[in-house]
């Protein structure tokens, strides 16, 4: 490549990068708005479900559904936070995604364990599948928590290495 061609391509590349950055910002903003509206709609729905349950006798399945809705709200809010961090950092940050995975797994475990009495009375095959799912979800929690701990230690090491050395006092 000729030096004259390189001088022409650099401004073009800069414009393309700027345009792509604007598109990325627009998409993150739209995604954030959609997630916020969805979280508010879930919150209103959960509030009405709660008032309905508080007004009368609630069955176990209705309570489990409400728990599922509340945990889904928490998951969507965490997704919204992840979008905010990605927007601010102009890149993907790993830790919020691990937290989202952890919340999802915990959500499924809570719902599954709340349904366990019903599953125990159902067919033996469905109970066995639920028990196997519970074991796998527990293993996923161990892996996700270990990953979070590793990531946090790694970022602390990076911060400690990047911190300027203080001069010693005489």
Q: What does the main sheet amount to?
A: none
Any idea what the shape is?
Answer: extended
Structural class: mainly alpha
Number of helices: 4
Proportion of residues in β-strands = under 5%
Rg (C-alpha, Å) = 24 Å
Distance between the termini: 57 Å
Overall pLDDT score: 83
The run of helices and strands is HHHH
* pLDDT < 50 runs, ≥5 residues: none
Structurally, how many domains make up the residues?
2
Write the SSE topology.
Layout: H1 3-55, H2 60-89, H3 94-121, H4 124-162
Helix pairs in contact: 1-2, 2-3, 3-4
Summarize the structure.
This protein is an all-alpha fold and 170 residues long.
Task: Give the tags.
170 residues; mainly alpha; 2 domains; extended
Describe this structure in words.
By secondary structure, this protein is mostly helical. It folds into 2 domains: 89 residues; 69 residues. It has 4 helices and no strands. The longest helix has 53 residues. It starts with a helix and ends in an 8-residue tail after the last helix.
């Amino acid at each position: 490549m000729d030096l004259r061609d390189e001088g022409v391509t650099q401004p073009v590349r800069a414009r393309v990068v700027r345009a792509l950055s604007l598109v990325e910002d627009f998409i993150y903003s739209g995604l954030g708005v959609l997630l916020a509206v969805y979280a508010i709609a879930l919150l209103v729905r959960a509030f009405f479900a709660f008032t309905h349950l508080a007004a009368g006798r609630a069955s176990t399945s209705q309570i489990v559904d409400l728990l599922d809705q509340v945990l889904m709200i928490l998951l969507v809010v965490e997704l919204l936070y992840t979008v905010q961090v990605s927007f601010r950092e102009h890149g993907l940050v790993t830790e919020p995604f691990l937290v989202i995975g952890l919340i999802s797994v915990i959500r499924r475990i809570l719902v599954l364990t709340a349904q366990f009495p019903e599953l125990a009375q159902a067919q033996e095959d469905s109970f066995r599948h639920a028990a196997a799912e519970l074991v796998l979800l527990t293993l996923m929690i161990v892996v996700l928590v270990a990953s979070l701990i590793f990531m946090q230690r790694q970022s602390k090491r990076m911060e400690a290495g990047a911190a300027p050395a203080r001069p010693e006092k005489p």
